[in-house]
Amino acid sequence: MRKWTLALISATMVMGLAACGSSNDNKEQNSANTGNQAAGNNAAAANAGDSTNSSSTESVKLRIYAQYADEDTKGPYDYAVAELKKAMPNVELELDVQAQDDGQKLKTYAATGNLPDIFQAGLDIISTFKKSGNILELDKYADDFKAKIQPSAMNTLVTDDGHIYAFPYAGNEVAMLFYNKELFAANNVKVPTTYDEMMAAVNAFNAKGITPLALFAKEKWPTVALYDMFASRNDPAGITKLDKGEAKASDPEYKTAAEEIVKLVKAGMLPKGATNLNYDQAAALFHEGKAAMFLNGQWEIDASTKALGEKLGYMYVPAADAAAYESSKLTFSGGGGPGGYAVNPQTKDPELAAKVAAFISLKYAEFKFTQRGTPMVATKVDAPVVNKFPPVMEQLSKDIPSMKTTAFSWGLSNPKFKAAIEDAAQSLMTGGYSPDDFVSDVDAAISSK
């Protein structure tokens, strides 16, 4: 059963750590000793791998540090290596299995001049290694790869400084509003597109003894996602603008989101005691047909499809009016960040290593898309799908190229704001916390950045 902690791991996989499924949360690291840098770089040149010029047919061995722990990581890696053997038969990869240690082993490699030629890196490793000179800037090797990136996933390729340091395979992940089509049809309830229609749905389902929206609000990230969904109807940046200090919770578009949520909560949108509800309890309400809607990440599609089959659908988030709904429907709460396969700047042939890193990333994504049945990849895939997407995933795959994303709460950069928005959003779900309280608490954190 997928829950928020696994989503975090999955989001962290986007940042270069293991991602095995769902429950949802992410990570950090520490810099290597720069005193060893000069000696380390010299040693790295000797140990980086037996590379030759990329145009050569001479046998080349490259050491790669990659995830290889379970079927979610072994399958795509083995597929990518097999495809590499067809495309570049002279290149042999020597696998160094990535430790699940928040990057400590990799940082030790960097400090001792023993970095592999190619290694998986998330934003945290990228940021650390940029400072110590242990990661290659890939801009001049990335033209072909850049052309294959999903337009909506450019944030997984280019860092805030405008450069490329890793070739991504994992795309953005998103929070979604799932719904039971049968419950809506049987009770003659319109799938809401506006706040008024959402209120009408809440009232109609309550009158039938059906929970309108199951939310595991004991965990804070889903409550932030719900707030972000409403805020991003007014400003597509959603909570990311608050995180960066570019907007305040007191701004009309952000305060309105809190006001609309409070109205719906007071009208009975959530189950009683929602802030004490865990994933299993909330999911059971939805899977057993006792709740009409459910908020979770796209990783929920598998479990809910098994429970509901063709009854499962997902809706675009309601907005103030029809025009706002249409203009914001493809803005999804969630996102990702730069990460993927990076290159050691001391490798013997940087051009070849970059070419191989890009190829492995593309084929890793291709396997996930065609054989694992997930469209949540960073790059476009032209190969035919082996395992057909469930209907809801098929719909999502069509939205991905044009979608815009905001952020998950664990991806926020301002720790004070993160703590404040998590507490405040969770409090909104009680009905006893006013929009003014929300504004006051969140703005205090923003101003103290």
Automatic annotation (TrEMBL):
Gene Ontology CC entries for this record: cell envelope
Residue ranges of the TM segments: none
Compositional bias of kind Low complexity: 30-55
Keyword terms of this UniProt record: Signal, Transport
Annotated stretches, region: Disordered: 23-55
Domain of life from the UniProt record: Bacteria
Signal peptide stretch: 1-18
Pfam families reported in the protein's UniProt record: SBP_bac_1
PROSITE patterns recorded: PROKAR_LIPOPROTEIN
Subcellular location: Cell envelope
Family: Belongs to the bacterial solute-binding protein 1 family.
Protein known as: Raffinose/stachyose/melibiose transport system substrate-binding protein
Organism: Paenibacillus taihuensis
